[in-house]
From TrEMBL:
It comes from the Bacteria. InterPro entries: 5'(3')-deoxyribonucleotidase (IPR010708), HAD-like_sf (IPR036412), HAD_sf (IPR023214). SUPFAM superfamilies: HAD-like (SSF56784). This is 5' nucleotidase, deoxy (Pyrimidine), type C protein (NT5C). Gene3D superfamilies: HAD superfamily/HAD-like.
Amino acid sequence: MLYDPAANLEFHSYDAENSSFTVRYHGGPDDYIEETLTPEELDKRYSFSEDFRAQFFDMNYINPKQRLFVDQDGTLVEFKHVDCLDTLYEPGYFANLKPMENVVQAIKEIIRNHPAIEVFLLSAYLSDSKHALDEKNQSLDKHLPEIDAAHRIFVPYGRDKKEFVPDGIRPNDYLLDDYTQNLIQWEPPAKGIKLLNGINHTKGTWQGSKLSYDMSANSLAQSIVDVMRGSTISQRENIIRDDKPANKTLPLSPEKIPMFSDYLKNVQKQSDITAFEAKANYLSELEEVKSVLTNEQKADKKLLQLLDLAQQSANLAPIPITLPELRNAVTRRLDDLLLDGNINRLLLDKNLMKYGLENAVAIRLQNPSATKLYTQMELSKLGIRVKKGQKPIYIYSASVKAYFEKDGKRVLAKDAATAEQLQIVSGKLPINRQIQYGLNRVFDIEQFDITKSQRQMILDMEQKTEYTYENLIEFTAMTRTTGSLGIKTEEVAMNGLAIDSFYDKESNTIKINRELHDSQKVSKYINSLSDAIITLTSESPAKLQTFESRMLSATLHTSFEKPVSMADGETLTTTFQEVRELFSDVGENKASFTLETLENTLAKVNRAATYVIRGVDKVVESHIEQSQQQEVKQQQKQYQTQTPAQQQGVTTDELVNFIQQIQ
């Protein structure tokens, strides 16, 4: 039941078949008048509020029909490989292409059952062929006559399909096509759906919605409609996927659960891994076996059913696990992630940062060798070469500290105060996502809603505060923590290179100290900050691909509602299924957890961040050449002998000039 106070009108029901509303309005003090009107009649008769129109009326009923444009070759009919292009010009080639029956029947079903969707054919053809156009029409007449001549659009090969759409392309238009380039040209403003036909999608370039040709016609039709209604891959993973549909599972017998628990106990006795890890390994092996069997043409269905039962049993069996065991499991998984010999793991903007680990790894970038390697990679990607005799800019990701070596001394950029100045600097620095976030959060004060006096106070603090290297290490920890807690901008005072705040355990609140720039005061509050447990108020981390990564990301990146006091030796009992369901919520804006005992345990696992640091260090050391290592050691030794007085600051102009030189 919907009511719009602006029109004094109550929407009682909607007749989808006749596209009409039954509405009620007051005919007098004690009675209602009811009538049936079309959306157009309603729009002429009543004045609706803007909010109501935007949220319901215009979006769902007044706009023109949604349009679905369907490709032909490789989508409605098979794609046949040819050894010679001349074959495409031979009579009968296009007429004899076999239809992809599931797709054809799905389109028929959409046309028949969803009149609100207008279906068009949109296909490229060889304009210099005598037969191509006629044969494509013949194929449609035979297999899909429901698409009449007025809804068939043929585009000369090589032209952009959206240029030929009648009345221009609309945001709610959809293209079903097997070729990624066509889909890329379609978006934006419209949206694409890739049909996986068994031979395409070998590179995985397309990241939008994908549907498999081997689904049943009913499922494929419903999937297309669902996507057009706004469903996404994450919301409907069971139908929008690259892989073949999974087999249905059998009901789980209760007696299977204790059998699996006994299996876990035996495994644990024979090895040093925890029951938690044993279960994860077991499930992983089951998935691998099932994947192999499912791809076999004559797979043993009974065996697949038994594997399903085993998998359900593993998901539901309770497992006892202590906090140290859980922490060790996370540590081992981190080592696997970081020590696989792939240097790309260190490019945090593409991997670890995406998994919510940027705050932990940023601390490691205080290590000069790690920072140097990381920065050189970023500079190299941008085509920037450092001139002979000059060192690259070192970037501290978490608090966006830029420094370089001048006359053999490490100096800091400490007075970059205005948005205009930082804009110049940021245009030259190798910016990754975390650094860009820091720039916007810490320095670009023009975008903040603050008073002139507050702005001047910030600028004054920038000019007056002097930072030593030790100060900046502490400020890094401060900024790292406040950033992950999602503190609102207007609640934060900035002192140049850090956002200052601390966590008050007694009142369970974040308190702000607008003049906190003394290093001793910073040190005093860092411990409180590192253990702060609050409800996350900003973005949830992206949904991850593996359970281990989900667990790690959630525990490092998500905060909880209250502090915990669980001893290391205390044991909790939960099920693997509960754990997986818990972390599947991450990324769907569900930041608060319901399993209290699991909350209490996993809240402490954030200490696993120290192992991330260790892992990154090993990766760095294994990929730096011997000569570079020697150079780094000399730099470290030289820097360690410097006094705070030698660690001088430089102006923004000097920093900009230096960057322009290395360009």
